Amino acid sequence: MRLRGIDPDATQRWLAENVPGLRPPVTFALLSGGRSNLTYRITDAGGVARALRRPPTGGVLSTAHDMSREWRFISALHGTDVPVPQPLAYCADTSVTGAEFYVMGFVDGRVLADRDSARPLSTRARRHAGLATVECMAALHGVDPDAVGLGDIARRDGYLQRQLRRWQRQVHQSGAPDLALLDAVHDALVRKAPAQGSGIVHGDFRPGNLSFALDGTVLAVFDWELATLGDPLADLGWLMAGWEEPGDELPAVTVGPTAEPGFPTRDELVDRYVALAGRDVADLPYYVAFQRWRSCCISAGVRARYLAGVMGDDGYVAQARAKDELRQAEVAWQAVQNLS
Asked: What is the rounded CA–CA span in Å between residue 299 and residue 244?
């Protein structure tokens, strides 16, 4: 069966010529869980697995799904204290399979992407995984962009203003309906934007984009499509907005297992981050509100692409997310009203 987004013959030829040590023939399998860029497991004749990343097969908005950007980040960070998959090969020739793509080493760990994903981990390992997540984030934020060749990848000032413009523009370009509330939250966030720090920002740093060993050690950080230079508190705000605790009344922006026994609390994560990164987190509530708004923009855009039929089919039910998006937008609106 032919996979969406892959020309198997042309891609196999390119892989054989450009990926060191690859032995054809290869098999392709779409990995579940991705709702933006598409990720495939490729297994060669020797049983060696690698991963291939490419954009969606349609609905690609300006500045989104930039494979060269992902490739540049993992290439720059490989060998630092931030664990990333091994970069293997980059293809800029869109004639091979309809888009640029890159190939990286396959990291065989556990991704904590849903409520059941941490079931094989002991409560001790879950605590380790939670603290290791924020420790890995602090390591990323401690990397000097200039030292790893990323100093010119983006502007360092005006991060929030750039992000607010970008997501406002993209959610309107996506064709998503009912944007009045998101527009109101956007305007309030613009008015209340704080002074900003600078560093490498992953853009989607959460347990669902990390691979863990069974003892909770972080093996790799994935999904660098949103990475840029900006205020590192944006990553911490995203992690906090998605870190569910038992008894929470407000919905998390992402699904994950962190309300299960063993995981540390949000306060423990923030304290650990401050101890390692040494950053002032007084403006963290703003970034949590901003990230709730941004999550609505992302979700609305993804839903519009699924409804248009341009994303790989992993069982996603687009309409079921509409109610969640509205609830998140309402929470974001309340959060931004509570800011000083």
From this structure: 18
